[in-house]
TrEMBL record, chains A, B, C, D:
Domain Glutamine amidotransferase type-2: 2-279
PROSITE patterns: GATASE_TYPE_2
KW Cytoplasm (keyword) present: no
Organism: Nitrobacter vulgaris
SUPFAM superfamilies in UniProt: N-terminal nucleophile aminohydrolases (Ntn hydrolases)
UniProt-recorded name of the protein: Class II glutamine amidotransferase
Record keywords, A-Z: Glutamine amidotransferase, Transferase
GO MF entries: transferase activity
Transferase in keyword set: yes
Length: 279, 279, 279, 279
């Protein structure tokens, strides 16, 4: 069910986070500790912002643990903002185009989870993608479809709002009639400056999500990368916002409809992480 | 722009047609003679009917010319009906799911050509796929979408009619407003018993298509596999029907609308191949 | 550290043994129960005897669990003698040429284990390959080198003897000076008629090996494929010989030098499996 | 028979040389103009010097023309010294380990050509690799074997001399008895500072080699990357030395034995390229 890591901070080589830690993402590809699928061997991906205006991508279908290229690239690529992802395929093919992260213009997205019964909902989720972004659909995953739907829902202007609107639509779909299908949406999103990490679920428990700050740097990951202290959990149904300014906020994230019901309940609980650092 | 071969006849090992001839499909993958793209190195596929109720498939993304597995399989697999295809990708990804042939239930399809401007038409062609067959869409090619649309248009009961109906819809799409986008549809279709080979184009010249009979066997191919005699061309806008009974007919194939205009013109020209063998 | 299965008996489709059982080889590729490496995701291979004079091979670098081709082939390929292997690479590259089984002429071999410290011994093990068989070295594994050394040591005339001679040489190498390096050699060998399955170790415990007979059929596997009865263990330092005649014998297997010491000890313990069936 | 490009100069993104030119290396992978093999689709590789002490490598078995990762990496990777290579396999497998460039410590090497009859000579060329460097043999190509033999022949202290010594040995092998087997050795070698490009052949014509200087930059390539002026040919049996100092010299390169015969002949012909720039 995938494992991922997102980094925002001073420009760093990827290896420090992706390949070197005791329980690095590569180690997690072979044996993760907190995932439903212990083995995440159905491809992987790197995404980053660098010297070219558009983000870079390296996606491969072989398991991350045996990819020599990945080791070389993690030593030589560096960025102030990068994503890395190892995949455990749910029901779509093992192709590069189905590996995360996904890129659309300046935006990059990766996901750990699933969207109800994909065979039942696929067509309707794809219909949520606006014509403008449909040519960007290169693969067949639910994750990419949701990302492109978010793009069309106004992601560029209002990332959290667009994500909330799409999740709200999805919640309607999985809850229609007598269906109570699960949605798990533990995902990362960035424009190269701000980092958004969502931990949300509907009709199910949410996939794990942790973060750690060190100096200027922020690391968000499916599982802690080592046994050292400093890892904190992002609460279920919250979004961590690591702004370009350096502030880190953790605020409730609920689809719009549910939110109206829970607004007061949640508003009192806004968590501010990295005290003395958040705004 | 792809090259392919289809065989129907006595049970034979594939090698006799796929790997051994002077200008075999493997040789064509490295250098075809009659295709727009000389190199067909973007993956390949084998499809066949054998001991299992469902057809078999072997599809790979690497070039056919360097695949050791292909050579072994062509020596050991045998069938009374098999397809082989080498791909030159037009605008979709090089994945196994985008390699031909495509299978849906008992039916198998492969294609050489393209459908207008895929970015413009993709959504509308995909909408031609009925809900019943949408879960069978594993890749992202125009070819697979057209095949699944054909499935929903009644392929099982009326293969040629269903194909004609879908082509008719496509012709409307590529000819709407001021568009005069090209369609090239040189394809093979089978249910394991009957073999249908279409050579059709709209707003463009049709891709090449040849056939040869020998004893009970029928070989249909994008290009002759050798310099020996016996290769005949399938005329543009015709379909070759190699029935399970052994008969081989070549009849006009035009989308229904156009057909009404040209009915008389074409009806006089029905070509009957394999004289003495056709009905 | 690899898992494998070998079948000899009536001609059968591979699926019955490779993909369908509860704890099939495919299931073992994702999670084996008795191996040092739980995940065997570094490629796989099928080898079989069929309609062509030379054995067939299908080897792939991706994990067996996600290979659609494998599923199709296991449904459509059938043989009276086939091998299947999932790999957990020890220290050599994940390439098709390093995947098992290996074929040389009429002989086929696959292995689960390792040969001492490969970097130290590689050159000397490779020098054990005779010039005649050196061009057959397509990969870089210890397993292939040992197999080709066995070929040169007279495998065709005396399979068990040739294997014993090569193991004897290897034991000298790993025991020279102060080295006491481990050798694990749990392997299968066939000429298409007779099946030999070795379970041997030096300076280490031997990797697991089981067999089951049913009617005419013999299945030898690293781990039982299901929880049903009938699975028996091949004892350490023994070789199971499933002859073309149908007889199944399990006899001690010790390198020649050690054997001289243990000859009397072992000769009394010859195990005859499948009582009433063995000679 | 492979095409390659080597760059030394100001730090630049690879795309300017690898993917963007009219007749870029990617274009050459699909259709080269001056090579025996027109299609170079048997894998490719990038090698470069960057932020990590050891050089970086990206090697893939699929054709360069369809690799999305390559396009992204060429936009985001930059270096003062990089190699890029597209392969047309001669007789060894299409694996990443057989793709060029090869790296050993600080040194990087790539090759276009072949070494006599590889099956006949393989064992003897491999025996030229010293024990120190034998563990670095990851693949099975003649090119990698020659490179590692060069490493053992003193490459670090005397790159051109070591190369000459190894070529001299090879010439003896291909000329022994009545053999007059061809050697083609058009190759690039670097330690990250100095660039050496050899164009040599024995019993055959040499593969093409060109270079162009622009400002501080030096590009050496199998074929000109565009139709602009400035491309000059490296003469047969010469080595171009692009030193870290910026000087560019083209001097005769002949194996030591032959050299003694031709010393006077060649010494008068030392070509100094980039007049006013060479030392």
């Amino acid at each position: 069910m995938c494992r991922w890591i997102a980094y925002r901070g001073e420009t760093r080589a990827f290896e420090q986070y992706v390949t070197e830690p005791v329980h690095s993402l590569i180690a997690q590809s072979l044996r993760s500790l907190e995932a439903t699928a212990r083995t995440n061997g159905d491809g992987f991906g790197l995404g980053w912002y660098g010297i070219h205006p558009e983000p870079g991508l390296y996606r491969e279908t072989r398991p991350a643990w045996s990819d020599e290229n990945l080791r070389y690239l993690c030593r030589h690529l560096e960025s102030h903002m990068f994503f890395a992802h190892v995949r455990a395929a749910t029901c779509t093919a093992v192709t590069r185009q189905n590996c995360h992260p996904f890129v659309c213009g300046q935006w990059m997205f990766m996901h750990n989870g699933f969207i109800g019964s994909w065979n039942r909902l696929r067509r309707r989720v794809e219909s949520m993608i606006s014509d403008e972004f449909y040519p960007s659909r290169l693969g067949t995953t639910d994750s990419e479809a949701v990302f492109l739907a978010m793009m069309g829902a106004g992601l560029v202007e209002d990332p959290v709002g667009a994500t909330r609107r799409v999740m709200s639509e999805l919640c309607k779909l999985v809850n229609e009639e007598d269906y109570r299908e699960p949605v798990r949406f533990t995902s990362a999103l960035t424009n190269g400056h701000d980092l958004f990490a969502f931990r949300f679920a509907e009709n199910d428990s949410a996939n794990s999500l942790y973060y750690r700050t060190a100096g200027d740097g922020l690391v968000v990951a499916s599982e802690p990368l080592d046994r050292e202290s400093g890892w904190e959990e992002v609460p279920t149904n919250h979004v961590l916002i690591g702004a370009a300014s350096g502030s880190i906020d953790i605020v409730p994230f609920l689809p719009s409809e549910l939110r109206q019901l829970g607004e007061e309940r949640w508003s009192a609980q806004t968590v501010v992480a990295g005290a003395g650092k958040g705004k």
